Each structure stands twice: as C-alpha cells, then as structure tokens.
C-alpha cells in the first residue's frame, strides 16, 4: 500500500472521528453514557476502546511496552479529554505514516496480544488495522444514536471523498 493511500485513509479516519465526536457532543445530557445494548455498554466506552486500541498499536509501532491488560480503560475518560487524546492520536498516526518508507511500511513487527498469543503484522497492516477498527466501532456508536433516538452523521468513505478537501 502506498504512503499516499495510507495518508488518505488516516485523513478519512480523523474526519469521520470528528463528525462522530461533534455529534456525540451535541446529544442530550447523559445520552453518551446511558447504558446501551452493545459490547462496551455505551457510546463513551466504545469511543474509549477505539482510542485504547490506537494507543496499544502505537506502542507496538514504537517498540515500547503499552502496559494495558485490557482493551479499554478501567473507567471511561471524560468526553473532552478522550476527544483531545483521539485528535492527538489521529495526528500522530498521520505523521507516522507520512514518514514511512516502503521498506519500513513492509517491516513485520511482532507483539503480544492482550488476550494472549503472539501477533505479527507489518507496519502498514497495523496502520490499516487502526483505521478499519475505528470504522467498525463508529458503526456501533452510530447504532446507539438510533437508540437515543437521533440520526447519526454519515461517516462513509464516499462522503469523505465528496465533502472533505483532498490533497
């Protein structure tokens, strides 16, 4: 996968995250933390999980220990703090991918999965994973919007390509 393609996917991810965070911020008080029939229990915990996985894979890419024993924080971070962390993380991934040479992008990194077992992924596969993972969980958050009931924003790639300035 080319660096320009990774950058486009990461710009898409940051754009879609901004739409979701803006929409969550506009919800009625308590809607983002209200119990929902979903794996992480509510919108905020789902967004927190996405950020934690980004943090874990950032550690793998940097060759450092991440210290997590779970794929989420013990308690959800406050919304504004989580949003700020996600924005910074999205910026880090974009900068990281922009600096990768083709040889670095193809380099395989080994790591331990939190649930056990050894993982092996190239650096570009890790970047692709965090983009795909966030898309998957934004879908969960979008579903929870209907439970409020509020219509979620459209965060599909074709909408990004139509609405967001492209390089």
Label this structure with key terms.
167 residues; mainly alpha; Four Helix Bundle (Hemerythrin (Met), subunit A); two-stranded antiparallel sheet; 6% strand; globular
What is this structure's SSE topology?
Layout lengths: L2 H23 L17 H20 L16 H21 L2 H5 L1 E5 L5 E5 H25 L9 H7 L4
Antiparallel strand pairs: 1-2
Any low-confidence stretches, pLDDT <50, length ≥5? none
Quick one: CATH superfamily?
Answer: dinb family like domain
Helix content: 55-70%
Cross-sheet strand order for the largest sheet: 1-2
CATH class: Mainly Alpha
The oligomeric status of these chains comes to single chain
CATH topology type: Four Helix Bundle (Hemerythrin (Met), subunit A)
- Strand fraction band? 5-15%
Structural class by secondary-structure content: mainly alpha
Say how many strands there are.
Answer: 2
Give the radius of gyration.
16 Å
Family: Belongs to the DinB family.
Organism: Dyella japonica DSM 16301
Binding site for a divalent metal cation: 49, 133, 137
InterPro entries: DinB (IPR007837), DinB/YfiT-like (IPR034660)
Quick description:
The protein is mainly α and 167 residues long. The chain has helices at residues 3-25, 43-62, 79-99, 102-106, 123-147, 157-163, and strands at 108-112, 118-122. It is globular, with a radius of gyration of 16 Å.
Characterization of this structure:
By secondary structure, the chain is mostly helical. It has a single domain, classed as Up-down Bundle (Four Helix Bundle (Hemerythrin (Met), subunit A)). The chain is built from six helices and two strands, in the order ααααββαα. The chain has a two-stranded antiparallel sheet with strand order 1-2. β1 and β2 form a beta hairpin. α2 packs parallel to α3 and α2 packs antiparallel against α5.
């Amino acid at each position: 996968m080319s660096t320009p393609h990774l950058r486009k996917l990461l710009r898409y991810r940051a754009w879609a995250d901004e739409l979701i965070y803006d929409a969550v911020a506009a919800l009625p008080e308590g809607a983002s933390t209200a119990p929902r029939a979903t794996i992480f229990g509510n919108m905020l915990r789902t967004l927190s999980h996405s950020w934690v996985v980004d943090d874990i894979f950032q550690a793998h890419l940097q060759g450092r220990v991440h210290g997590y024993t779970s794929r989420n924080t013990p308690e959800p971070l406050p919304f504004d703090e989580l949003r700020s962390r996600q924005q910074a993380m999205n910026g880090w991934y974009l900068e990281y991918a922009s600096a990768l040479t083709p040889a670095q992008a193809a380099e395989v990194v080994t790591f331990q999965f939190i649930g056990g077992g050894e993982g092996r992924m190239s650096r570009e596969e890790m970047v692709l994973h965090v983009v795909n993972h966030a898309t998957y969980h934004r879908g969960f958050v979008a579903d929870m919007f209907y439970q409020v009931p509020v219509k979620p924003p459209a965060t599909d790639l074709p909408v990004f390509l139509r609405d967001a300035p492209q390089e």
